[in-house]
Fold these 2 entries.
Entry 1:
Amino acid sequence: MTLPLKYDTARAALAECRRVDEVKDWIDKASALREYARRIKDRKMELDAMAIRVDAKRHRGMLMLQLKAAGHFPEGRRSTVNRDEQFVPMMLEDYGISRAESHEEQQLAKLPEDSFERLKARCLAYAEEHPEKHSLNVLKPPPEGPINGARSLMGSRQEPDDSLDYFPTPPWATRALIERVLRPHFVALGSVWEPACGEGHIAEVLREYFGEVSSTDIHDYGYGYTTFNFIDGDASGIPSPDWIITNPPFKEKSEAFVLRSIELARVGVAMFLRLQWLETVGRYERIFRDSPPTIMAFFAERVPLCKGEWKPDGDTATAYMWLVWVKGTTPRAPFWIPPGQRESLTRRDDAARFTAHPVIRREDFDPQTGEVTTEVVA
């Protein structure tokens, strides 16, 4: 085994790497050492190898950002991008890097150093307590310990990394709620609570419209101001918001979210749901019979949702809608959100901000350079 076993020695050597292929050697060496440590059951060595590997991936991401700024890694095939014989841009394939690896490593590189170190330390601490973990996902860190009794790990929206329960909502779909559903009918928006905020895809859009936005989730995705079990948590000390707006967890937890939201919101509730959610006798008896929605707004165009991230060019065959309950208001006729919202309500900097993990707040982002302008606290 040629890889130094001392983590500090390996990290110092990594810092001296100036070429992408040099760093790739370290990624491969760390992967090999990790597998070797697993076989001999040396967990300390395996954890060191996992840390070296994520350090190397971040370092390669930094080098790729430098190359990208110099004109390398253009979109398309080489034959379509090489029009200048004096400059031949390097492609990802020249380095043996996949697009998924490139995206992950450049996101790691964009994290401030101290934030990256805190997230990595959290992942390592979690891995020490969970021997089944054999890699570090710094972009999607595990939960921390209890915070003032707010966290409850038994309840909705608590999921492992490979869960199918986290599907971020495209920002334009939330803007459609405000522009095409709420504003035409309800002028005063006031305060809002996003209780399943994830990485901030809905909450960050709500900040464009509402004067006061609270964002929580039972799992720490790095965006919300605190963790909170919305279904079972004690909300007695939380001021009631005017609105509660969210994309709730799937299946039976979505019903619990709707009922709790109707209980807590002072003015109204808006839920992003599949069209099939209107079905079943049980849901009619538990919700619709006594609490029919005030507004049912169906998207005429498809709203693509992808596991774990927002893909600006994604596609889907699933139909979605916004269901809205407004207290003291008679239900109105259902209507359609007209097509064209995806194009008209997508903003120029959405792709850069809402594909980050977590979402980058607008005040922390320079739309001209695409860079984070202030430290993102992990």
Entry 2:
Amino acid sequence: MIKNKNKKPGAVGVKKAFTLIELLIAISIFMGFMIVASNAYLEIIRAQKTANETRLIYSELRNFVDLVNNELREGTVDYFCYDPKRVEDLDFKDLALARCFDGPELTIEAGNNLRTIARDGLSSSIIKYIPPKADGTGGKLCQMRFRNSNGSWEREMAVDNGDSQNGCGEYQELAFGNLAMNDLRMEIYPLIDPKSMKGQADLASQLQPMVRMKLQVGSKLGNVKFNLRYQTSITARN
């Protein structure tokens, strides 16, 4: 057996290890890495949540545009109820024309409403916009539908939304969970029914009622900064 002459009898071998300072430095580096990684992860989650909520806002905006589009594609602008001379001469007890009796402010020039009537003349609709007010009310979209039953027009839905000055009254509120309607203007062109244009048969057959919508929308969600100006034109294909 070969003995190690350099090793003293009874001596114990010393193993190398990390010092306390080295451990503290390693822990500090690890904690710094974890903080950076956690912040990056939280930022990704926050950005993904914002993107999802923004998509919901766009989806609600698209649903409203599709609603107006369907009203016009399945019908046309209700020029009869927009004619002030006809409406003034109407007997307000005449149920056959009851669809025209919803507010003197719903004129074709006002830009705050859209009256439509189905091609078969059996249903009608009013979409009106109540702009925001200083007291925080308004900023609402309201709709009333009518149906023609044996020549008499009846409201298809009527609800109680409180004060008609601040809410939709008996109209159905088109509520949005995420979308805030800050401004809306519906411009109807032409201002008179193309079918009533005497001596312009060719023009009347080519000119179709059109609605140009100008919207300014925002977000009801406090953590999403969203402000969009949107404009689109929809034509009634008669």
